[in-house]
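Annex B. Sample input.
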Amino acid sequence: MRKVSDDLWVYNTRDLMRASSCDHCTRLAIARELDVPGVKALVEQFEVPVAGLPVTYGQKFESELEAELLASLGSGNFRRPEGSAVIAETIELMKAGIPVIYQGSLEHQIGLVKFSGRPDFLVRADYDLAFVDGKLTAHLAAHRSDATGYIAWDAKLAGSPKPHYLLQVALYVDALAAIGLKAQGAHHGLILGGRTLATYEEGEIVPAMRQARSYILDAIEGIDATDYSLESLALHCDSADSCKVCEYPGLCDHNRREIDHLVQVAGINKSQIEKLKKSGIATMTALAEAAADARPDGFVPATFDKLRSQARLQNDYKVTGSHSWELLEDPEIGVLPPASPNDIFFDMEGFPYFVERGGLEYLFGAVTRDKQFYPWWAHNRDQEADAFAGFVKWAYDKLQADPTAHIYHYAPYEVTALNRMVARHGVMADEVAWLLSEDKLIDLYKVIRGSIMISQPSYSIKKLEVFYDFARKSKVVDAGSSIEQYDQHCQLVESDPAEAAAVLQMISDYNEDDCVSTLELYNWLAGMPGAHAKYDTFRSAVASKKAEWATDPEDEDSATNKAERELAELQHATDNMAAALDGWPWGEDPDADYRAKVWQALMHSVLFYKREEVIHWRERRIRRDSTTDNLHRDRKALVVEGCVAETELDFELGLDARTKITVAYTYDLEPGQTNFLKSGEKIYVRYNYGANQHELDKGKIVSIHGDQITFQRVTTVANSEFAPNAIFEDKLIPAGGKQEAVKAHALALAGAWRSPRYEAPEGHPALDLLLRREPNLKHGRLLVVEGDDYLPALIHAVENLDHSVLAVQGPPGSGKTYLGSRTIAHLVAQGKRIGVVANSHSAVENLLAGCIEAGISNEQIAKQKKKDDPGMKPWTTPSAYPALGNWRAKQQGGYVIGGTAWTFCAAKILEEDFDYIFIDEAAQFSLVDAIAIGQGSKNMVLLGDPQQLTQVVQAVHPGGVDNSALGHFMGEQAILDDEHGFFIEVTRRMHPAVNKPVSWLAYEGRLHSHADASLRSIEHITPGLALVPVEHLGNSAHSEEEVAKVIELTAQLSAKVGEDEVLIVAPYNAQVDSIRDALDANGFNQVQVGTVDKFQGREAMAVIISLAASSAEDAPRGLEFLLDRNRMNVALSRAKTNSYLVYSPTLIRSRFTNVEDVKAVSRLAGLLEFAN
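Annex B, continued. Sample output.
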């Protein structure tokens, strides 16, 4: 930020990044520009040059793009302002309608602050940019022939978008809007160095920019220099995370050490710091000197003691200048394997900003005991598969040859990544399974945390190196820097190959350093007292347990191996399909490549269910062996150290040590903890049986009340003496008959297709779904919808569907169930056999109920009852699949059978085809499930909305089969196009004032309210979105302040519309439970509260949304989850007339760590603009 005069300040995107999260950064910059005594002299000591590629590389990239567009358009349609008045000339060129303007200039001033910049390309709204044969081109977009205004594009040599890139584009968009030349409803974007385009809706980026700019504007308007004396300035960021964008991170670190801030203590969290400060412990020294009885309320004694010990060690170093360490009781080094000459020391480098989902693991590095370095590199997905397979094969062969050898790594990333590689590429599954089952991968980070405490502020391997005198040769300082360096390599690889190779060598040196450091760390640990002492005993116990579970098919370790064997058998069944892609000439023919990718999806659909099962068992193992700090970050787990058994066990009763008993425990959440587990949920209960080694019992969550959790554990008398230290979810739903069904259908489809070298045959709805084909109709095309009545066009399309697939995207309240049930009724009247399927029984039964309302006799409808459902149903309820099949055989005319995917994969049901199968909530229905049930129907109709709740899977799978059926069919579209089906543009639920923010948020402004929806209202309350800001600090998943406000609103609303017309939505179970308790205590027993997962499909006159988290930093799982577009869409759209957003005003103050943070803040900031 720079002061030009008393009336003008200029700012850039980095100023916005800092202002978005930290007043310290903005105030310090203002004080520097005001020339406050002492400020410049102070900050100059800590100035850090902005990292980035030399400008010449960026200019070269832009020049190449300029030449390519000039060749595409010709000089008459491609212009660059040449005069001295560049801004005025840019505006004139736009007014003249030049298709593409290169390096124009824009500025926009609001109050005392101004931005000016040069967008690389301003593109007329009726033109599209595209890369054709690697060259940037521009062409007229026929579907936008009447569009006016301009779209902003910025060129970045980087291979992936960054938050400040988005803010830069947002500034250009805002400047275009200010002069009335912005294209309406357009996507603006980035041209990236990997020769790809990234586009963004205006609403995804501009509101966040405006919000950040408002902080700068507020700070500068009415500025008083006396408020900016050096003594009044905070000299460190509120959060250490904010220092990543801070202008003076060194000053922050220096000041924190100077004032002895608690944040220095390794492993401490923000909530713990606040609790300690409130109890009078405000510095690291005070914590180090605190007595045990100074423990604040809410702290488990063990946690407080651990933090005190950590603070004492660090404080001793601060006083003496000498580092020290302490051995813990029963340390894990006791079971550290003895050295082997064939040990491997392993480290991986990943690039999270890779253009494809899931990032890229680009370097697998290893050293042997002689310090010989072995690297396996990857720069694309195929190379990643080869590098992964190369490393695993090399390591596997060495360890097979030497049973005493192990692979050592530091931190759990490597094990997690290897499992992810197996799922992603479908190779080396047996080898990785063996490495895991034989405990060949040893995490030395876990060994460290289970063995010693050190006098360092963190337990990174770099901080440990002082203890074993390791000197690095690499100039790359940490993993974050390696990511930046690899990004730089990607940008340079074409423009300057020699420099790119030099950068890659730096990364190689860094990876080699990490591997060698891991070797030296092992040697240091191996030299400690007690190292290896328990290893033989431990391995003997492990061998005995394996012998037990090998003969017990119910044992879950046995189930793990069984699942892996079955996956290997399925892979063998797809060998012929895999062979069809051997040597595929990728890149030569885009159409052929597309068919090959669909063939891959078909092949991997056979493996999907079993892969999900294998992933479940492997994650169970990873959590069993994880460190406490990693479990704290795992939303599926909860650390419960210090939990209390509700009944004291009497070990003198003479019970057999192997006798099974059930023990109940209570646990109160500690500061900073968030529980995502639900009441009634099955769990694993982890316990330490010695030397930081863990085992698991089964259990379940009994109840959750506020911050107190009660859970049960089924264990043995012998193991009950080991207290639980963590619990995590046990959620495995067996595929059952779906596995055989998808295998049979996928292989049959592959047989009919023969090879992806040929066009796929028609007449198979599952292939039409996979290939995203337009519906194949017997006669004509899809009809144009007249007005708001979609039923005639839908019935016409379904009647004419010819062994194909049709989609209907139904936004909230659009009458999707009405349209589906009336269409089914029309088909049944014609004697058609209909299947209705969805993920949940409730969704199926909702559509079946609609079918009865539409006039289908209940005698023509059948659905097997859900297990343990005692209620009566208005249709036939056969007891089992054979009975359902018998009922079907007796039907003389049309009929409807409802069920989940298991029903339509049952052999008895597959004996006869359905004419149509309607998949409801198809955006939550797995693509693989759709393939599995597809063999039993001539046609598929997909009903759903990918802008609401979507498909949930364990991991990213090869071939894209982790998508939902409708999500896959729609591809990258947010709105279904007219060629593939129908987007229902009218909502009959939401009042126009409620619908407007929903339409903006999720439907590009295309969703409108039916005229009748505007007739509803609550007496004396204006319809629409109302903001209810509530001040609170330090809350993560639960806010009592917001609970009180919710009860107040509930009382007002229920008095007007009744309790059944008020819904309350919260993102976290802890807030849901607290609100439920408060509702019951205040007599509002009929008011429903839950997460959005409970309420999709529900509606009420008024909806209250409580976000709970105090700030972005406090929010569990981050803003990406809390402000997720789909979840916010579902929450807001439950309301007929009024929605209330209860939130902390500081929630919108966020550090933009990634692109998703910019989008999340934009969502909230944008919604605030729609409020009453």
